[in-house]
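Anyone up for a design puzzle?
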C-alpha cells in the first residue's frame, strides 16, 4: 500500500509540475509568438505582440497582453502615413474564471481594452480592409452570429477609430470611451469629426455596452446626433437585436437646408427644395430600410407619408407615398432647377436666395441648374406625390397628383394631374440621363379651364367668362432646363371659346386703339368672345406663330409672334380688323416685346404687319386647327363658338388647286 501511495504521489507531483510548467510557459516569448502566429493564421494577416503575457495568478487570474498590432492591407495602409496598421492596441487586460473553464465555459468577468487605435477603410470598389474569416457574407436580419465568451464587464479606455471610405468620400476620426450615466448604467460614447460626401461631419452618439449586443431580452439603447454640412439628424430609441439591426423602436428627426443634400448621405434622391424638417419612425426588414409616419415641412408646405429604400436590388430602389394638405406651389421649383420664392414670408436657404438674386440680376427666368445625372443613374425610384390643396399666387389650383419613376437612368413623371380653374391640366415629362447630354420630352395639356376662375379675386373677375385650353409638346437635349429648351423642337397651342372678356383688359392691352381712346367716356362693359387661337411651332429653341386669332363680336384680331428660348427674348404684333367702320378706329399694329423678365407694350406706326380681309385671315389661320377643339369641350354636347367659327372658315375658304 505504501508503495502504491508512493507511486501515486510521484505521478501527482509530476502532473503538478507539468501544469505549473505549462502555465509558466504562458509568460514566455514562446507562448507570445505561438498566440500571435495562430491569430495571424485566423485573420489572414500578420499579428504581432510586443510583450510577453503578464499573469496575476489566482482562481480568477488577470492576464495582460500589451502591444498588440494587426497589419493592414497594402492599399489601405497607403491611406495613412507610414503604412499604418489596421489596429494598434496599447493593452488588453482580462480576468478569467478558472473554475468555469474546467467545466468548458470561457468566462471573463472583466475585460479592459486600453488605448485601441483602429483604422478601417473601404476602397472605391467596396472592398473593406477588415479581416474576413469565413468569407465576406453580408449581415442580414436573421443571419445569426457566433457565440461570444461569457463576459461580465467591458471597458474601453482612450479608444480611437479612423474610418476612410473612398466610394462615399468619408473620412472620420472617432473617439470611443466607456462611461456611466446618471442612472449608474454603462454606456459607450462615440464622438467623431471629419468629412462626409465633401461636407463637414460631426457625430455624438451613445449606445449600450458591447456586452448588451448579445442580450436579446433587454432593449439596446441608441442615441445619435449627427451633422453633415447643413443637415442635422437625431436618432433615438432601442433595438431588441442589435447584432442584426432588428427589432427597431427608433425615432428619427432630420432637418436641413435642402432635401437634395440627403442623396450623398443615404442615397435618397430628391430635387432641390427649400429648408426642411421631417420626423418619423425608422424601420428595417431584411434589406429594406424605411421611415414611416413621417410628418414635417418642406419650405412652406406640410408633408407626410412614408419612404423606403430597398438595398436588395441591383441598384438601391426608393419607394414612397408622400402627401401634403397644403402644398406651396413655389416649393416645387426645384423640379426644374429653379430656386423657390424668396420674398417676404417665404422659406428659402441663403444659397437659394443667392441663386434667385443672380437670376434676377441676369434678367433670366429659365433656370440653369445642372441636372443631377448621377442620382438618376445610381438609384431607381417609384414615388407617388399627392397634394390636397395647392397654394399658388393668383391661380385657383385644387388637387395635384403625380407618379415619379426612375429606372435605368430614365426619369418619367406620369401622370401629372392638376385640378386647375375648374378644368384639368397634366401630362407626361421624361428625362433620359443615359443620353449625353440628357434628353427631355414633354407632352402637357390644359383642358376646359374657366377663364373667370383664372381672374378670381381681381377687378376683372366679374366680367370674365369662356373656356380655355392648351397643349405643349417638345423634345430637347441639355444638362440644364435652359439648355434643353434652347435646343428643343415641338409645338404649342392655346385656344379659348365662348363667354366674355373684360373690355378693360382689351383696351389696356392696346388691341383696339379707337375704343381705347374713348374708354374713359364709357362704362367698362365686357366684350363677347367667339374664339381665341394661338398655334406655334418650335425649332432649335426658336418659337414662331403659325396662327394667332382673337375674334370678338365687333373686332377680329390677327397677329404674329416669336420667342427665342436661348436668350429669353420675344415679340408679339397684333392688328385689329373692325367689323364696323368706326371713324375713330386707328388700325395700327400694336403688341409687346422685350424679355420674359422685362416685357413692354410696343406700337408700330409703320403698319408693318400685313393687313388683309378678316374673313380671309380667319379662313387661312383657323382651317387646320380643328384638332384643338377637344381642349375646350366641357362635355355638354353642344358645338363651341370656336367650332362654329372654324366650320364657317372652312366653308368660306376655297381649296387650293
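Challenge accepted. My sequence:
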Amino acid at each position: 500500500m505504501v508503495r502504491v501511495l508512493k507511486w501515486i504521489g510521484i505521478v501527482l507531483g509530476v502532473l503538478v509540475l507539468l501544469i505549473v510548467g505549462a502555465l509558466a510557459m504562458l509568460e514566455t516569448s514562446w507562448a507570445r509568438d505561438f498566440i500571435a502566429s495562430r491569430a495571424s493564421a485566423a485573420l489572414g494577416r500578420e499579428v504581432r505582440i510586443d510583450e510577453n503575457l503578464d499573469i496575476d495568478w489566482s482562481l480568477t487570474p488577470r492576464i495582460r497582453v500589451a502591444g498588440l498590432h494587426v497589419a493592414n492591407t497594402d492599399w489601405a495602409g497607403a491611406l495613412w502615413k507610414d503604412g499604418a496598421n489596421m489596429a494598434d492596441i496599447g493593452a488588453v487586460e482580462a480576468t478569467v474564471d478558472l473554475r468555469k473553464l474546467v467545466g468548458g465555459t470561457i468566462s471573463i468577468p472583466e475585460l479592459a481594452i486600453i488605448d485601441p487605435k483602429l483604422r478601417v477603410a473601404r476602397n472605391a470598389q467596396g472592398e473593406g480592409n477588415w479581416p474576413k474569416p469565413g468569407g465576406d457574407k453580408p449581415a442580414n436580419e436573421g443571419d445569426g452570429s457566433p457565440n461570444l465568451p461569457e463576459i461580465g464587464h467591458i471597458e474601453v479606455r482612450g479608444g480611437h477609430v479612423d474610418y476612410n471610405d473612398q466610394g462615399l468620400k468619408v473620412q472620420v476620426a472617432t473617439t470611443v470611451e466607456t462611461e456611466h450615466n446618471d442612472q449608474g448604467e454603462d454606456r459607450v460614447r462615440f464622438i467623431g469629426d471629419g468629412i462626409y460626401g465633401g461636407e463637414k461631419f460631426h457625430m455624438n452618439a451613445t449606445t449600450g455596452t458591447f456586452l448588451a449586443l448579445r442580450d436579446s431580452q433587454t432593449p439596446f439603447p441608441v442615441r445619435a446626433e449627427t451633422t453633415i454640412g447643413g443637415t442635422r439628424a437625431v436618432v433615438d430609441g432601442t433595438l431588441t437585436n442589435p447584432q442584426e439591426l432588428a427589432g427597431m423602436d427608433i425615432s428619427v428627426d432630420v432637418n436641413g437646408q435642402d432635401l437634395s443634400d440627403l442623396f450623398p448621405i443615404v442615397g435618397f434622391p430628391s430635387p432641390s427644395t427649400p429648408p426642411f424638417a421631417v420626423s418619423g419612425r425608422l424601420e428595417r426588414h431584411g434589406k429594406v430600410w424605411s421611415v414611416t409616419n413621417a410628418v414635417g415641412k418642406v419650405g412652406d408646405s406640410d408633408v407626410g407619408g412614408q419612404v423606403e429604400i430597398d438595398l436588395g436590388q441591383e441598384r438601391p430602389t426608393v419607394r414612397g407615398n408622400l402627401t401634403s394638405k397644403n402644398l406651396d406651389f413655389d416649393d416645387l421649383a426645384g423640379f426644374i432647377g429653379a430656386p423657390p420664392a424668396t420674398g417676404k414670408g417665404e422659406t428659402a436657404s441663403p444659397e437659394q436666395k443667392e441663386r434667385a438674386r443672380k437670376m434676377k440680376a441676369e434678367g433670366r427666368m429659365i433656370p440653369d441648374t445642372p441636372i443631377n445625372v448621377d442620382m438618376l443613374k445610381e438609384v431607381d425610384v417609384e414615388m407617388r406625390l399627392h397634394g390636397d390643396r395647392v397654394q399658388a399666387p393668383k391661380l385657383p389650383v385644387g388637387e395635384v397628383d403625380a407618379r415619379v419613376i426612375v429606372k435605368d437612368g430614365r426619369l418619367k413623371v406620369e401622370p401629372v394631374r392638376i385640378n386647375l380653374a375648374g378644368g384639368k391640366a397634366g401630362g407626361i415629362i421624361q428625362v433620359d440621363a443615359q443620353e449625353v447630354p440628357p434628353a427631355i420630352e414633354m407632352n402637357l395639356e390644359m383642358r376646359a379651364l374657366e377663364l373667370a376662375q383664372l381672374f378670381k379675386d381681381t377687378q376683372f373677375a366679374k366680367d370674365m367668362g369662356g373656356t380655355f385650353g392648351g397643349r405643349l409638346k417638345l423634345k430637347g437635349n441639355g444638362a440644364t432646363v435652359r439648355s434643353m429648351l434652347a435646343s428643343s423642337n415641338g409645338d404649342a397651342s392655346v385656344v379659348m371659346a365662348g363667354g366674355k372678356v373684360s373690355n378693360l383688359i382689351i383696351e389696356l392691352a392696346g388691341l383696339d386703339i379707337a375704343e381705347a381712346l374713348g374708354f374713359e367716356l364709357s362704362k367698362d362693359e365686357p366684350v363677347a368672345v367667339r374664339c381665341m387661337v394661338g398655334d406655334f411651332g418650335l425649332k432649335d429653341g426658336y418659337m414662331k406663330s403659325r396662327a394667332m386669332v382673337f375674334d370678338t363680336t365687333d373686332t377680329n384680331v390677327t397677329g404674329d409672334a416669336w420667342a427665342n428660348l436661348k436668350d429669353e427674348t420675344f415679340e408679339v404684333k397684333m392688328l385689329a380688323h373692325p367689323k364696323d367702320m368706326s371713324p375713330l378706329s386707328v388700325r395700327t399694329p400694336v403688341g409687346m416685346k422685350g424679355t420674359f423678365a422685362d416685357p413692354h407694350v410696343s406700337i408700330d406706326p409703320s403698319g408693318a404687319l400685313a393687313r388683309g380681309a378678316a374673313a380671309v385671315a380667319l379662313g387661312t389661320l383657323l382651317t387646320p386647327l380643328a384638332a384643338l377643339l377637344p381642349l375646350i369641350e366641357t362635355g355638354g354636347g353642344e358645338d363651341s363658338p370656336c367650332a362654329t367659327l372654324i366650320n364657317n372658315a372652312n366653308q368660306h375658304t376655297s381649296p387650293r388647286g
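A detail worth pointing out: DSSP finds 13 helices and 35 strands in the chain.
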